[in-house]
Specification:
By secondary structure, the protein is mainly α. Helix content is 74%, strand content 0%. The longest helix has 42 residues. It starts with 12 loop residues before the first helix and ends with a helix. The protein binds heme C (HEC).
C-alpha cells in the first residue's frame, strides 16, 4: 500500500520529465556519499574493535581518521545523505502513484533508519574528539589517571563505552537502511514483482535484492578504499602527522579494499544486466554496463600500479574513476527503471489528465470567449431578456438556476426538453468553454450585478 498516495497527486507527463531529472541528481548526490559513509563506518568500527583487542594505538588513530575524513561534517551529511533520500522517496511516491507496491513504504522506512543511523554515527565521531581531549588533558598529569578526580575517570570510561556502542548501532542501522533502500528501488524497477513482494519477509528472501545489495556493498567499499587513499594522502596535502608505520597501514588498507571491491564488481554488473527485468533491456543500457566495466578495469589497473610501485599518485585517477563508475551505474539504473515502469506511468498520467479535467470542470475558464458576441449571433433570434420570442425570456428561466453556472451551462451545451409550452431548443453547437461563459454571463446579466 502506498502511504503517501493520499498526500500526493499523480504527476502529469511534463511533470514526470522534471521528476526524472531531479531523481537522477538526488541519486548522484546520495549514492557516492552514502557509499563512503557505509564503507567508512564499517572500516572504522572494524579498526576500532581491533584496537580494543590489540591495544595498538595505531588502529585507534586509523579508526578515528577514517570516520573523520570519510563522513565529512554533520551538516554535509544531512545535505548529501538525508535530503536526497527524502527527495527520492517523495519522487518514487509520485511515480508509483496508485500502484500496489511496498517500495514507497520501504523508502520511508529506510529514510527513518538513515536518519537514526546518522545521529549515531556523528555521535560516534564526536566521542573520538572527546577522547582526544581526555588524552591531551592526561598528558598534563603525566598520564597518571589516578590523580584525576573519580568523576572525570568515570566520565572517560562512559565516553569510551558509548564510542563503541554508537559505532556499532550506527553501523548496523546504516546496513539495514541501505538494504531496504536497495530493496525499494529493486522492487520498483520490476513491475512484475510488485504483487509478490508484499512484506518485509519477501524482501529479505528476494535474490535480486541481495544481488543489488552486494553490488552496492562492493561499490561502497571501492569508493571508501579510494577515498582513504585520496583523502589521507592527496587532498589538501593529506594528513600531516603520519609516521611510516601508519602510512603503510592506511595505504595498504586503502589499496587492497578498493582493489578487491573493484575486482568483484564486473561480476555483479554482468549478473545484473542478465537479470534486468523485461523492458529494462535497451541498447543504451548495454552501452552503460559496458562502459562501467571498462572503467572498473581501469580502476584496477591504477590500483595495481599504486601497489606495485607504491606510488600514491595513482590513487587520484583511481578514485575519480570509481566515482565515474558510480555515476554510470546510477544513470543505468534510472534508465532501466524508467523503461520498465513506462506502462504504469502511462496509467498514472491518464489519471492525472482526468483529475486535471475534473479540476477544470469545477473552476471555469472563460478566457478568449466573448459571450455577448455569441448571444448576438446565436441566441438573439429566439431569446430576449424580457420578451418571449421562440424561446422563453431569460428573465423567467435563468433565475431558476439560482446562480449554478455548471448546471445552466450543461443545458446550454446540451439542451433538454423542459417546458411543454415551448418547442425543444435546438442544440447550438457551442463548445464546453463557450457554454460555460454563456451561463456565467446570463446569470450575471439577469441578476443585474
Ligand atoms: C431556434 C431557437 C433557439 C435558439 C437559437 C436558442 N434557443 Fe434557447 N430556447 C429555445 C426554446 C424553444 C426554449 C424552451 C425549451 C424548453 O423549455 O424545452 C429555450 C430555452 C432556453 C433556456 C431556458 C432553459 C430552462 O431551463 O428553461 C435558456 C437558458 C436558453 N434557451 C439559452 C439559450 C442560449 C444561451 C442560446 C444561444 C447560444 C439559445 N438559447 C439559443 C429556443 C432557442
Amino acid at each position: 500500500m502506498n502511504i503517501l498516495d493520499s498526500l500526493i497527486n499523480p504527476p502529469t507527463t511534463e511533470h514526470i520529465a522534471l521528476l526524472n531529472i531531479i531523481q537522477v541528481i538526488a541519486f548522484l548526490m546520495f549514492l557516492p556519499f552514502i557509499g563512503m559513509l557505509f564503507g567508512g563506518t564499517i572500516l572504522s568500527v572494524y579498526f576500532n574493535s581491533k584496537y580494543r583487542r590489540t591495544k595498538d594505538p595505531l588502529f585507534l588513530k586509523f579508526s578515528k581518521d577514517i570516520i573523520d575524513r570519510l563522513t565529512f561534517s554533520r551538516n554535509l551529511g544531512w545535505g548529501m545523505g538525508i535530503l536526497p533520500v527524502f527527495t527520492i522517496t517523495v519522487i518514487y511516491a509520485q511515480f508509483l502513484y496508485g500502484a500496489k507496491v511496498i517500495s514507497v513504504g520501504l523508502f520511508l522506512l529506510s529514510t527513518l533508519l538513515y536518519i537514526t543511523s546518522f545521529v549515531f554515527i556523528y555521535n560516534y565521531k564526536n566521542t573520538f574528539h572527546i577522547e582526544n581531549v581526555f588524552k591531551a588533558f592526561k598528558a598534563f598529569t603525566n598520564n597518571d589517571s589516578s590523580s584525576l578526580p573519580s568523576e572525570v575517570r568515570e566520565f572517560e570510561k562512559n565516553i569510551l563505552k558509548s564510542n563503541v556502542r554508537y559505532g556499532n548501532f550506527g553501523m548496523w542501522l546504516l546496513i539495514i537502511a541501505s538494504f531496504l533502500f536497495v530493496g525499494s528501488y529493486t522492487i520498483a524497477s520490476d513491475p512484475g514483482s510488485w504483487e509478490s513482494n508484499n512484506g518485509l519477509m519477501s524482501v529479505f528472501l528476494n535474490g535480486q535484492i541481495w544481488l543489488n545489495f552486494f553490488y552496492f556493498v562492493s561499490a561502497s567499499f571501492a569508493i571508501s578504499g579510494g577515498a582513504i587513499l585520496y583523502l589521507f594522502f592527496i587532498w589538501q596535502g593529506g594528513i600531516k602527522d603520519m609516521d611510516d608505520k601508519y602510512k603503510s597501514l592506511s595505504q595498504k588498507t586503502g589499496i587492497y579494499i578498493a582493489l578487491i571491491a573493484s575486482l568483484v564488481q564486473p561480476l555483479f554488473l554482468i549478473l545484473n544486466f542478465i537479470n534486468e527485468p523485461q523492458g529494462g533491456l535497451t541498447g543504451s543500457n548495454f552501452f552503460l554496463t559496458g562502459i562501467s566495466i571498462v572503467s572498473i578495469l581501469l580502476v584496477c589497473n591504477f590500483l595495481y600500479a599504486a601497489l606495485r610501485n607504491s606510488e600514491i599518485k595513482y590513487a587520484s585517477p583511481a578514485f575519480f574513476l570509481i566515482f565515474l563508475t558510480f555515476i554510470f551505474s546510477v544513470i543505468q539504473q534510472q534508465m532501466a527503471f524508467g523503461n520498465s515502469i513506462k506502462p504504469h506511468l502511462y496509467t498514472v498520467t491518464q489519471k492525472a489528465e482526468e483529475l486535471k479535467k475534473e479540476i477544470e470542470g469545477k473552476t471555469i475558464s472563460t478566457t478568449g470567449v466573448d459571450p455577448e458576441a455569441i448571444y448576438n449571433t446565436k441566441c438573439i433570434a429566439c431569446h430576449k431578456f424580457d420578451v418571449k420570442l421562440v424561446g422563453p425570456p431569460y428573465q423567467e428561466t435563468v433565475p431558476k438556476y439560482a446562480g449554478d453556472v455548471k448546471k445552466l451551462s450543461e443545458f446550454i451545451y446540451n439542451p433538454q426538453k423542459i417546458n411543454p409550452a415551448f418547442p425543444p431548443m435546438p442544440n447550438q453547437g457551442l463548445k464546453q468553454k463557450e457554454a460555460d461563459a454563456m451561463a456565467q454571463w446570463l446569470i450575471k446579466k439577469v441578476s443585474g450585478k
